[in-house]
Design goal:
globular; 25% strand; alpha+beta; 378 residues; 8 helices
Length: 378
């Protein structure tokens, strides 16, 4: 941490004093579990949501290995898996959400069989009211639930402004149909395409380009909407390079003894003139912060939705001798004017809150419809 943390002021923490305090505490450690507790507490002294100590028994949850461990995101499946076991619910509150929305339901799942659909609002879990505090929704609502086949729990659901809340019993079982990479033509005149980017995985740029070719098989696009809401990240540089070229800013540590590198997007592989909208929300993380930042900084896109997550610190894992890991923030992005997006996110050109029923609006949710209207000149 002393040599590698992203900021040499350690977020205002007196790191030398932390060292003295924790060396003394370590004298009384008698087991691996006590050591891990101590290391976890020490890293939390940085007051940095990215940096953390990971115990070996938490690797599964940390790196999404083989299972359905309960996450604070409240989701129980990976959209990149063809099938798994769970409920098929994606309930991952964005920082701006005032309500606990069902963001997505896998097409073949216990949740779908129970009649839960996208945009439903969950008001209680097993009779316990859902309440948002200054720290967000209470993740411990879900802790008593065992994510295993055969178990059930009860969600209180409201499906519309005129609908009465109802209790829905949801079980656990086989889940599939969760991959939400998709595209469609959302307007014929003007001819506007839409692509849903659930993540920036290794082949994201190829996937986007393939979708564009499919939509342009009959005629050129007049506009394109790239929906990266609820996108946890990956690597978006190649995807940005489909549309634009130029220097976005710099990436590296904020330390006097370290150098920063120029963050440049190299393109253009598709088109640099057709109007593009990038959709963001408070769950557009990491590479999904970098992508709209690059597109906006280089004047290539209009941003619609809500501010992105502001999760722009890059982390590196440091393996310790006891097989645990310290995952530490070591780099961050600064735009060309020197401003940081960390904790702030990319500000939309057109801000569109969802409200309680914005995801339910037909035929397209309120944020997507705003993007369509903008490209249509309405």
């Amino acid at each position: 941490v002393q040599a590698n943390y992203v900021r040499d002021n350690f977020n205002g923490t007196d790191w030398d004093a932390v060292h003295v305090e924790y060396v003394a505490l370590a004298e009384n450690v008698n087991s691996s579990e006590e050591l891990w507790d101590l290391l976890g507490s020490m890293i939390r002294e940085l007051n940095d949501d990215h940096s953390r100590h990971v115990r070996p028994d938490d690797f599964g949850a940390e790196f999404e290995l083989g299972g359905n461990s309960v996450q604070y995101s409240l989701s129980d499946y990976s959209p990149n898996k063809a099938a798994t076991t769970g409920t098929g619910l994606d309930i991952w509150p964005a920082k701006e959400d005032e309500y606990l929305y069902v963001w997505k339901v896998c097409s073949e799942s216990p949740a779908a069989s129970a009649g839960i659909v996208r945009g439903d609002v969950i008001t209680a879990v097993n009779g316990r009211e859902v309440v948002k505090t200054a720290d967000g929704f209470d993740p411990y609502l879900w802790v008593p639930l065992r994510w295993e086949s055969g178990n059930t729990f009860t969600l209180t659901i409201q499906s519309g402004a005129d609908a009465e809340p109802r209790d829905v019993q949801v079980g656990f079982g086989e889940v599939s149909g969760c991959d939400d990479w998709s595209y469609e033509v959302v307007s014929q005149s003007p001819y506007i395409g839409y692509i849903r980017l659930p993540d920036f995985s290794g082949d994201a740029a190829s996937q986007v380009m393939n979708f564009i070719r499919e939509m342009e098989a009959t005629q050129p696009l007049d506009g394109l909407i790239l929906d990266q809401r609820h996108n946890p990240g990956g690597n978006s540089d190649d995807t940005a390079g489909l549309f634009t070229d130029g220097v976005v800013g710099t990436v590296g540590p904020l330390r006097e003894d370290k150098q920063r590198t120029t963050y440049r997007i190299r393109g253009v592989d598709w088109n640099e003139e057709i109007p593009v909208v990038v959709m963001t929300d408070g769950n557009s993380h990491s590479a999904a912060d970098y992508f709209p930042a690059a597109m906006k900084e280089l004047g290539r896109a209009t941003i619609v939705g809500m501010p992105s997550a502001g999760n722009t610190e890059g982390i590196t894992g440091f393996n310790l001798a006891d097989s645990s890991i310290i995952r530490l923030a070591v780099t961050t992005l600064l735009l060309n004017d020197g401003s940081s997006l960390e904790g702030v996110g990319v500000t939309p050109d057109i801000e569109v809150p969802l409200g309680m029923w914005g995801l339910k609006q037909a035929p397209y949710d309120i944020q997507l419809q705003t993007a369509i209207d903008f490209l249509s000149g309405k």
